[in-house]
Amino acid sequence: MKWISAVSKRTIFIYFILLFLLYLFYVLNTFSVDENMFTFKYLTLKRHVSNYNYVTRRFAALLGYNFKDKYMTLRKPNLVPTKRLPDALIIGVKKCGTRALLEFLRLHPDVRAAGSEVHFFDKFYHKGFEWYRNRMPPTLEGQITMEKTPSYWVTRSAPKRVFAMNPAVKLLAVVRDPVTRAISDYTQSASKRPSLPRFEELALMDGPWGSVVDTWPPVRLGIYARPLRRWLRRFPRSRILIISGERLVVDPAAEMTRVQEFLNLKPVITEKHFYFNSTKGFPCLLKSESRSTPHCLGKTKGRNHPYIDPVALERLREFYRPHNERFYELSGINFGWQ
């Protein structure tokens, strides 16, 4: 009942007392003043008062009060950190800015997140919720527990499993222009495998003018409407926040304002926490939970993309155009991707 303010609690409690007094008068008036009825009236009144005492204690507990003897005291908040299942999940999308979003959220004092991707809902679900809980950081009452695993976005069984954990969980997904996302995905793979064929050879059949290979993972992941439709079968759109990866780079403070509102957090993260690194082309942090000095997210963030044939880029844009339109309709946001 955190949403009930202290004033509201007091007002509701006073109303409850007044209702009891009215009920008490009713009970007294239902009996005759005849002395022969006095004993029966006394026993009946005693029973009603006993019932009222029990109901009052239960009602006051819901409002955040505790009774000890004849004194009423406020219930003390739990000051011992406890591991809890997540209140919110960053479910995707890979290479769209999920790491940046999590690092930005760590700036907030009321957010605690798992240190690494847990992969519970796609790889380790068989281990059970207790195993999952133990992977979470300890949090105090009022703090939010979070976890990020981008592969949840495309795991078919993930929406059902997340719903089984908590139907009220809040879900965050970062998206960006699917063409740029595919190139970024390829760039990451090429940095680990220098022998990888050129982007155009993998994304298109028979050269730049060929048809798009929609089964190639970097291309397939950019069809956002399909996974979103699966998540919407389990969760209302009000429980899913779609975040612009482009805005997270250009104006991180504004996008984080949306995120904080969605999570019902105080607007602590503002423009004072960011500065733009022109070399990396990416926003960096002036301070964070673990470091008080300015720093960027890591060497792998802001890699230079390889040159891609403009004809191949146009073929990809044509391929994604209808998929993007369906995604705009489902998400309720027009991201304006060309």
UniProtKB/TrEMBL annotation:
Residue spans crossing the bilayer: 12-31
Disulfide bonds: 284-296
Keyword Transmembrane listed: yes
Gene3D superfamilies (UniProt xref): P-loop containing nucleotide triphosphate hydrolases (3.40.50.300)
Positions bound to 3'-phosphoadenylyl sulfate: 95-99, 176, 184, 301-305
Active site: residue positions: 95
Keywords assigned: Disulfide bond, Glycoprotein, Membrane, Transferase, Transmembrane, Transmembrane helix
Molecular function GO terms recorded: [heparan sulfate]-glucosamine 3-sulfotransferase activity
Domain Sulfotransferase: 86-323
Full protein name: (African queen) hypothetical protein
Organism: Danaus chrysippus (African queen)
